[in-house]
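step=encode ok
step=design start
structure_in=
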């Protein structure tokens, strides 16, 4: 997923929300909690990336969330940044990923400095009566590591309701085996758009920045959770009730490249065909071999009958009633 595409998607959505969020009279920062399972890493261009997860713990739907953060390094120096949470119209108990980028404040770069701690502050969290159309079901999802080391969560999504689902995106939060965050990702708008009632489509969402062949063990992905957002189908009123987001289960599918899975399936098919052919050949040869002696004996008997030995002929005559 290209960063420019992601930024453009959210910029467009922020603009569409702006008429409803100019005032902070309904701001409820205390309803949003940044969970303590955050993690950090250096990205490909040398920025320190902090990934975190936020949860709406209040009673109201929150339209958008802004978070500022202060990064404290191992030498005591600090760096500040802020970002929008990757998730909107969060209903009570819902979780969404947060992606923060920190640039070095001097020309020396990060050097051997590492992150000591990160302090988060929720600066904006507006209550709203809007919520996203949610009659969408994910099925057949699995985790796959591609040949280039990219981790993908892929599967199918179906519109199980009675309305069109417009501008669907899927947000992914990836976890290590210890439950810490390992990465985040987001799709572009799924196609077809809109997804009509009973219609099904597929999706594929990658873990941003993280090559699983080179990341340290504390960033290896072991599980994930997915959040569906229908940015173009917004409803009003009391949102649907959901239970607290469960702890993501382990990835049930072997993590391999889809091409290799296809190759394995093709190989298995070829082997099965060869085995079937071999069995048919063996059966045919067996039947042919069994039938051949019988064919040889028949002429011998006929010759014997046409040119019988006299003693044999007499014996047979005597034995006949």
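sequence_out=
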């Amino acid at each position: 997923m290209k960063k420019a595409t992601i930024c453009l998607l959210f910029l467009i959505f922020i603009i569409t929300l702006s008429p409803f969020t100019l005032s902070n009279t309904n701001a409820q920062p205390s309803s949003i909690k940044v969970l303590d399972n955050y993690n950090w890493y250096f990205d490909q261009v040398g920025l320190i990336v902090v990934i975190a997860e936020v949860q709406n713990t209040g009673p109201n739907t929150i339209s958008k969330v802004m978070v500022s953060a202060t990064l404290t390094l191992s030498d005591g120096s600090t760096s500040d940044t802020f970002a929008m949470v990757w998730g909107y119209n969060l209903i009570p108990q819902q979780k969404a990923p947060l992606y923060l980028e920190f640039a070095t404040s001097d020309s020396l770069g990060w050097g051997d400095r590492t992150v000591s701690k990160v302090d988060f502050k929720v600066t904006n969290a507006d209550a709203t009566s809007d919520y996203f159309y949610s009659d969408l079901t994910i099925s057949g999802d699995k985790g796959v590591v591609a040949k280039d080391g990219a981790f993908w969560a892929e599967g199918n999504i179906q519109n199980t309701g009675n309305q069109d689902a417009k501008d669907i995106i899927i947000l992914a939060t990836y976890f290590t085996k210890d439950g810490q965050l390992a990465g985040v990702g987001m799709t572009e708008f799924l196609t077809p758009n809109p997804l009509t009632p009973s219609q099904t489509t597929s999706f594929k969402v990658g873990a941003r920045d993280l090559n699983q062949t080179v990341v340290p063990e504390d960033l290896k992905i072991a599980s994930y959770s997915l959040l569906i957002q229908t940015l173009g189908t917004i409803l009003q009123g009391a949102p649907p009730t959901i239970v607290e987001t469960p702890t993501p289960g382990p990835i049930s599918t072997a993590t391999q490249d889809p091409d290799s899975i296809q190759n394995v399936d093709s190989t298995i098919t070829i082997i099965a065909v060869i085995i079937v052919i071999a069995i048919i050949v063996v059966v045919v040869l067996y039947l042919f071999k069994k039938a051949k002696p019988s064919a040889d004996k028949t002429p011998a008997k006929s010759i014997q009958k046409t040119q019988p030995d006299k003693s044999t002929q007499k014996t047979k005559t005597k034995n006949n009633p």
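step=design ok
step=annotate ok -> The first strand starts at residue 32 and ends at 34.
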